[in-house]
From TrEMBL:
UniProt cross-references to PANTHER family, sorted A to Z: D-ALANYL-D-ALANINE CARBOXYPEPTIDASE, D-ALANYL-D-ALANINE-CARBOXYPEPTIDASE/ENDOPEPTIDASE AMPH
Superkingdom of origin: Bacteria
Annotated keywords: Carboxypeptidase, Hydrolase, Membrane, Protease, Transmembrane, Transmembrane helix
Natural source organism: Streptomyces griseoaurantiacus
Pfam families: Beta-lactamase
Keyword Thylakoid: no
Identification of the protein by name: D-alanyl-D-alanine carboxypeptidase
């Protein structure tokens, strides 16, 4: 059953590492795509379900959480923030072994939702005059993108952030993220950014830079490397210093190689699309296998705070926020998000009630994250689910987001 936990209303938001075009359980090789209220919510904690019952219930949110659970997922957390304040509904289990129910504050692996954090830091550096979106990858990372037709001289920072580089997605040739036996053997191994990019360089590009659109996790591994080259510090350090700490995202981390999730969290389960195989607990894994493309951990409350702050201009200067919102058509995403467009670490999705919303979900075996937020940051919806689910999981999560945003007045 779904549980609703509603704080006091404030008066005035593969399985793979990317957004999803088809839902397969083949780890990162399935083209599953992806998706501030820090001050407004300061001091507003979630209350217990028993107390929440005395406040305005949110039946649509409870129904939404249950609808995602009914697609075969294990645990679900849905958070909606808007004029009504913030409400959270949960359904299913956080831990199948212990039977612990999913909790509203539980953390989870956010997979490609990491990309919006990374893009934000890159754009901050642009705003500081330390980078340009038109800088070439070769100028910033000499010799890293080369061979088999790959040419870093022709790829810009902008091409990386909006997936128009044409570079091969390393996750499509990375068994530890796509095969259950390879995961069992290698889930604790550490990987360097050079190794991940090296996998992609073994393959020819899909198209010439700027001549098409194709989601590639390689782009954001390179973006993380550019952050380090520019600042002298890792992308994890900069995301923590520039975003996590200033916004008080206490349940959000950008780990290096630590495979364990700390505190109360949702355990992920997957069989990696291996027919006849029982799903295994995939919660423990070395995040360096995903890196800047998808290695972060957070919860629905922290993600809501981040998206609201981003859209309200608290993290980027106006010119850089405008650049982030400049989108290109992304036909590859149409099966999951008809009419979708992609900006610099942001997806733009049409709303059924008119207008559109921004988003960047994430998929990693055993974990699904979907989200949607208005351009002004006043309305944010985040959906987290664990387990493999089925082909209806993404549509169900997207329907929850659309319903909640439209109920709050759309964009």
């Amino acid at each position: 059953m779904a549980t609703d936990t509603t704080p006091h209303t404030r008066t005035p938001h593969t399985r793979t590492l990317h957004p999803a075009t088809r839902r397969s359980r083949a780890g990162v090789t399935s083209r599953v795509l992806v998706t501030a209220l820090a001050a407004a919510l300061a001091g507003t904690g979630l209350i217990t379900p028993a107390v929440a019952a005395t406040h305005t219930p949110a039946p649509s949110l409870r129904h939404g959480a249950q609808s995602v659970l009914d697609t075969g997922t294990v645990g679900v957390v849905v958070r909606s923030t808007g004029p009504h304040g913030s409400r959270t509904a949960t359904a299913g289990l956080a831990d199948k072994r212990t039977g612990r129910p999913a909790g509203p504050d539980d953390t989870f692996r956010i997979a490609s939702s990491t990309k919006t954090f990374v893009s934000t830091v890159v754009l901050q550096l642009v705003g500081e005059g330390r980078l340009s979106l038109d800088d070439s990858v070769e100028d910033l990372l000499p010799g890293v993108v080369s061979g088999n037709g790959n040419d870093g001289r022709r790829i810009t920072v902008r091409n990386l952030l909006n997936h128009t580089s044409g570079l091969f997605d390393f996750t499509e040739d990375f068994p530890v993220l796509t095969d259950i036996d390879a995961f069992r053997e290698g889930h604790l191994a550490s990987w360097t950014e050079d190794q991940l990019v090296g996998i992609a360089m073994k393959h020819a590009p899909r198209f010439a830079p700027g001549e098409g659109w194709s989601y590639s996790n390689t782009n954001y591994v390179l973006a993380g490397m550019i952050i380090e080259k520019t600042t002298g510090k890792s992308w994890q350090h900069e995301v923590t210093r520039r975003i996590i700490r200033p916004l008080g995202l206490h349940r959000t981390t950008a780990p290096y190689t630590d495979p364990f999730m700390k505190g109360s969290h949702l355990k992920g389960y997957s069989n990696f699309a291996a027919e006849g195989r029982t799903p295994i607990d995939v919660s423990v894994m070395n995040p360096s296998a995903a890196g800047a493309a998808g290695g972060m951990i957070s919860n629905t409350a922290d993600l809501s705070t981040f998206y609201a702050a981003l859209m309200k201009g608290r993290l980027l200067k106006p010119a850089q926020l405008a650049a982030m919102r400049m989108t290109v058509r992304a036909e590859e995403l149409d099966p999951a998000w008809p009419g979708a467009r992609y900006g610099l670490g942001l997806l733009s999705v049409p709303l059924s009630c008119g207008g559109s919303y921004y988003s960047h979900g994430g998929d990693l075996f055993g974990y699904t994250t979907r989200n949607g937020f208005s351009a002004d940051g006043r309305h944010v919806v985040v959906v987290a689910a664990t387990g493999d689910g089925d082909e209806d999981t993404t549509p169900a999560a997207n329907a929850v987001i659309d319903e909640q945003l439209c109920a709050d007045g759309g964009r």
